[in-house]
Amino acid sequence: MNNQKAALLAKTESLLSYSINGGTFTIDLQLLTFCKQLIDEQEQEVVLLDIYKNPILVELESFYEEIRSRYFEASNEYYIEYEKLRKSRKVHKVLDLNEDGE
Predict the structure, then answer these.
(1) Of 9, 16, 66, 102, which shows the fewest CB atoms inside 10 Å?
(2) Which residues pair with 20 in a beta bridge?
(3) Beta strand 23-26 pairing with 17-20
């Protein structure tokens, strides 16, 4: 179970990596919130530091829409797969109880 959960988490983390204009960003709530705040302040192009601390110029609206979409897709997929793991674990516990009782 732990190996499956670790593999699922690693897959999700890779889906939350986004490369653009020669930079790579980790999509997380902090990046999403910061970009949304800049959009609300009517910024259009900004320089953001990527995971390697390189300055990357991005067009904010399209960048935000892409990372927001990827975040929800990855999070939803993680949730679905995680629930499958949880349910399969419960089934195994029930089966183990049945085997012990016989």
Answers:
(1) 102
(2) 23
(3) antiparallel
